[in-house]
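Researcher: Please generate the 3D structure of the following complex. Treat every line as part of one assembly.
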Amino acid sequence: MTATAAPPDSAEIAAIILKNMPLEGPLLPILHDMQANFGCVPDAARPQIADALNITEAELHGVISFYHDFRREPAGKHVLKICRAEACQAMGANDLSDKVLELLGLDWHGTSSDGRVTVEPVYCLGLCACGPAAMVNGKVRGRVSADALVQEVSA
Amino acid sequence: MKVWVPRDAAAKALGADAVADAFKAAGAEVVRNGSRGMIWLEPLVEVERDGVRVGYGNATVEDVAAILEGSAETLGPVEEIPFFAKQNRLTFQRCGVIDPLSLEDYEAHGGLAGLRRAIDMEAADIVAEVTESGLRGRGGAGFPTGIKWETVRKADAPQKYIVCNADEGDSGTFADRMIMEGDPFCLIEGMVIAGLGVGATKGYIYLRSEYPDAIEVMNAAIEIARQNNVLGRVLQSSHEFDLEVRVGAGAYVCGEETSLLNSLEGKRGIVRAKPPLPALEGFLGRPTVVNNVISLATVPVIFEKGAAHYASFGLGRSKGTMPIQIAGNVKYGGLFETAFGMPLGELVNDIAGGTITGRPVKAVQVGGPLGAYFAPEKFDTPFAYEPFDGAGGLIGHAGVVLFDDSADMLGMARFAMEFCAVESCGKCTPCRIGAVRGVETIDRIGRGDASAIPLLVDLCETMKDGSLCALGGFTPYPVMSALEQFPEEFTGVREAAE
Ligand SMILES: Cc1cc2nc3c(=O)[nH]c(=O)nc-3n(C[C@H](O)[C@H](O)[C@H](O)COP(=O)(O)O)c2cc1C
Ligand code: SF4
Ligand code: FES
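Model: Done. Output below.
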């Protein structure tokens, strides 16, 4: 989807890298900070990160692509994560996610064409005794219904 | 008036923040405690009356005025609710009781007593105390914690590490999350004692990104611990220990200890071959203790009350207590800490009250996505390491997920394979490719092709034997246990699960 976040600024990228360099194993913290700042790990940041850590861009790509969390492009305005794991399935998570995806006209990992919402699967949120569970923009939700979730991401 | 409204993620997921705000607006003094673990009652609000904390279950904003007036219907004293009263709370003794971010409250409830004792002990005696307690790893494998610590203690290196595994990816588990949100100093204290025992001065908590609330509480607690010399110069002694939270990035396999270490180093979370053991060559190649949150958070009570006290609980070689998490389609879902040995059926039927739908329990999955399904015929199995192993399963991180009779066991077997395919680190073929074949084979069976059943059995054997770690190696547990106990669901034409 089209990115609406500010284009990554190379000074900002440099500052994020610099801040994390004193850490032992700074790469994941750098990637998390990039995503917090730019809504994704921008391709434009890759040469600078690889350079700072003295790794190749191919190695860097290997790391970024290994983890489900990191995005290449910003997500929609709302991010809806629905738990697909066993305890939530025992409480009807399959029907719930089918219905949500249908109501939004999306498939897993899809973003609506107006950039309003991205839907992603998640495997357990630790809310397994009050499932089905979901997360809306980083906020936890228990015993959810499809209608309530869709409502929450409609604005 | 003082009111407790949990800040636990499950309570928040059920509306606790709005309830807390309403109490504040009404002029009450609000403490955001952890959860007592009775998740079906959340948000569970508590008010002190005549020196006793009484509870109000499933509290809403509309209930606030009546609770403050004393006219709302109460559950009575919270600690007398049977689900709570029947427990042996050792690791979770303070969770839900105290303000998680008050070090004063923590100390007033037994916190730091263990560390004060440990700090005057020789390192070898600290490790011996843990060994004598019989504590075994609560992350899944059940390895004796003291023995692991001894290996690290004896290793000679300029720098050693304590790494806390807070990746808690197993469906049906939330004990790590609850203690980090409800009693974070307990984990910090356990890690400091581990540092004293093995000679490590630096610790990391690898905390999954799916737990933003736990990340917030842990970071705040670490800051408070630094300001009060719990971290840094430990209790003004000559010992140093500092601690950092590192956030995961959504990979289940990073809960495997060597994958976790790679991830912590900023690499792909590929599983490493053992040897070398992480105890000798762990984080950045240095001797490293990797322990689960609950293993480490149990250390303070062992030092506070003594190894013998801890070891007096339990069954056989499963010593002490286990915070069992009961989830899924369950009437009384939550965290139940009890001595090892309670029969599974008692947990499922008496403690948890069966299913919330009121329909018969068809099966329970114990030990997360790599754990076996247990049909009611096996409910006499005592909850402990060896008996579960003997019954063809594992307790893992002690999650128990209930399913009612509408559960689709072929679909659950398919999901186990699908999950393995999604989360495989890719290092071994039987796991990476086998899991994909597993999904296809189960789909064939679902279409009525019974000749694919032996193929599935073969595939499971190959995965068991040819996988480097338990992701590929144990995925056959849920698959085979479903097939063996519910064979009728694997014959005949049926709709594919998805
Ligand atoms: C695929 C996989 C996932 C795992 N996930 C976790 C986890 O989330 N938390 C955990 O403590 N241990 C997990 N483990 C077990 C760890 O490898 C390791 O045994 C454990 O952290 C050791 O700590 P303990 O001895 O205190 O249990 C996992 C293992 C495998 C194979
Ligand atoms: S079994 Fe699977 S997850 Fe484990 S090391 Fe092999 S490929 Fe990786
Ligand atoms: S299984 Fe859905 S929150 Fe744990």
